[in-house]
Each structure stands twice: as structure tokens, then as C-alpha cells.
Amino acid sequence: xxxxxxxxxxxxxxxxxxVIPAYNESATIADVAARAARQAEVIVVDDGSTDGTAAAxxxxxxxxxxxxxxxxxxxxxxxxxxxxxxxxxxxxxxLDGDGQHAPEEIPSLLAEARAHPGEIVIGARTFGxxxxxxxxxxxxxxxxxxxxxxxxxxxxxSQSGFRVYPAxxxxxxxxxHGPGRGFVFESELLIAAARHGFGSRAVPISALYxxxxxxxxxxxxxxxxxxxxxxxxxxxxxxxxxxGLRRVLARRRAERAPTGSEAA
Length: 264
Hints:
The chain is an alpha/beta fold. It is 41% helix and 17% strand. The protein has a 7-stranded mixed beta sheet, with helices on both faces.
């Protein structure tokens, strides 16, 4: 494994690091990490895997951080982010290690991040959405509504883990990230970002569901309950944020409105 390189700007462009949390991803992690390493420096956080995930990375030009036990996705992301900030990067790219995100699309997100350095860039799954399980698609739409309401701004694909976070944001906020906060962390970070003045914008990405990937670690009952509880508290603490609700509803109405060709 390669240790982290020195901080700075390469080729006149701000440097970014890629953080990949991985828990029992031995079937896919080497391919994902190798492809990501062609785009930027990569930090893989092995979250106490028991299937040889770390061994699968042998010989690859990545930095490997290892949790002694499984702490959850949120804790792994936070550890990787803090490590990346120590390198002096302008921002952090996150993507999953199960092959559902194409590392070749990192440049598209980075182009948007460089153009809008004060915003989170979300890779929104729009291409090939027919391949997504309908239950997951509907759950994501519901999550977009509620998390957008709490954040006070419309969000596209709030459950996508393929994102670019500005370093300035990650230095300002600290979101709970211990065990049990795995899938809550990414949702809460969007809300915290908005409340610190950091907007969000979407870049279309492919929706991939590789056959070799392991089953999702997302628990439909417990994780949805945790996210719902977090969002409810955020709304209650802001008097239900009526202005945010109006903005989200306005976006929904705009999405449903027929285009000029459809109305003709």
C-alpha cells in the first residue's frame, strides 16, 4: 500500500481524494479501487471485514485504513474524510465499494465541484433507473422529499453515496457517526451542510446493480426508522421549516409540469 502523498495542487487544479468505505467487499473492492485510482488518490477504509477485503487490495496504489471492528458506514466515511483533510485536499469524493458506482464518472462530479466549490455534488442515479428495484426507487423518492424538507432545499437522490464534499464543509461540521449511524450519517450530513450555507447540486450518473456485488447492508426496517427519527427531530427543532417545505413542493410541481412539447 502507498502512504498518503504530500498536500498541494497538481497541474494547477485543486486536489481531491476518493474515500471508499468497505465492509466485506472482497468480490468487488479491488476492481473499484483500481479504477478509482486512475482518477485520483484513493483511501479505502476497511470496516472490520472478515472476508479478505484488505487482502484483495494488495499491490494497488491506495491508502488502506482498517477498523479493528465493524463500526458502520458513517464511522468509516468520517475516518477516511479526516485522513483526506490531513492531505490538504480541496474536497473528498465518496463512493461505495460494491460496484454500484462507476469510478469513470468521477471526473464529471469533479468538474461540477470545481465550478461550484461551495456545494456538495451528488451523483444522482438517472440513467438505467429501470434496472433499479421499484421498492428502492420509491423509497429514495420519499427520502428525497423528507430530507430535502429538513435541509430546506430540494435534493436529488439523497441516498446516493457517490458525492463530492467540499473540504471547507467537512472542517466546519461534525455529524454523529458511531455504530448505528451508518446510513443516517450521509442523510444528516446533507441537512447539516444546508444549515451551514452549503448547497447541493446533482450530476447524472449511471444506476448500476452488478451481479457480483454482495447483498446490501441497508436494513429496510431499522435504517429507515433511524433516518425517519433523525429527520423528524431536525424538523421539530426548526418549527417544521415551512419555508423548506414550500421550496421542495415547488420543485415537485415543476418536475410534474409538462414540457413545451408535451403541452402542445
